[in-house]
Predict the structure of Chorismate mutase.
Amino acid sequence: MMIKFKLLILVLTMSTVINKMATAENEYTLDTVRETLVRQEDTIVFGLIERSKFPFNSQTYDQNYLQIPGFCGSLVEFVFTNTEIVQAKAGRYKNPEENPFFPENLSLSLVPSYPFTKFLHPGAASININKSLWKMYFHDLLPLFVASGDDGNYAQTAASDLSLLQAISKRVHYGKFVAEVKFRESPQDYEPLIRSKDKEGLMKLLTFKSVEEMVKKRVEKKATLFGQDISLNSSDDSKGKQKFDPSVASKLYEKWVIPLTKEVQVEYLLRRLD
């Protein structure tokens, strides 16, 4: 009787393990990752609109503006660093979808670990291009859509930068999941290129111009819709007026989000067979 009971427990345990593995395998498919990427577009577009409410506010980025003992850097760096420290303690960066901008400053998580799906190859953790995103954001993107000037809302400006940059970072680094899904669907196409370290060949295999054009048009349309002034009065002249240039969203994806996502995918695939 005891032996039968132990066998029953063993069968139930194995069944649970198999079900968890099946769930993990089915959690990420081409359809589910596409749905996630589309939802992330909304967050990024809203982030662009929110940041556009403030002028450039150069003091936010002035290394000499802050006078905080023990800290050297700009206000935006101060906000990013301390926010990430708190979020790390709360367990944010235990999620493989999240990548910090200042990993060297992070503390250990203080909350119980959630059993996130072990879907990615272990080498994925070392792929973090946030330093490049940081430079792109402040040197190239902001001047495209933020008005010059100063309204004194430096903390609010830094908070908007934080939300938008984190959203862009999540979208770009989600390329790891896209690459893993594509690899699992067609390993025979990817393995020869990976073994030969053919970055150019991998980039060609990952590039679908028609899909990229569709994404750019979609984010611009979203920016057009989300960025309109809405009025319940049909005779209101301000109805449909744009408070944000929707072409900025398309340019962001064309010049940076899409190329950098593919860069992450290539870097991930090059580690996939290690």
About this structure: Residues 1-24 have pLDDT under 50 and may be disordered. The chain has one domain: 30-111+118-229+239-271. DSSP finds ten helices and no strands in the chain. Residues 30-111+118-229+239-271 form a domain with the Chorismate Mutase, subunit A fold (CATH 1.10.590.10).
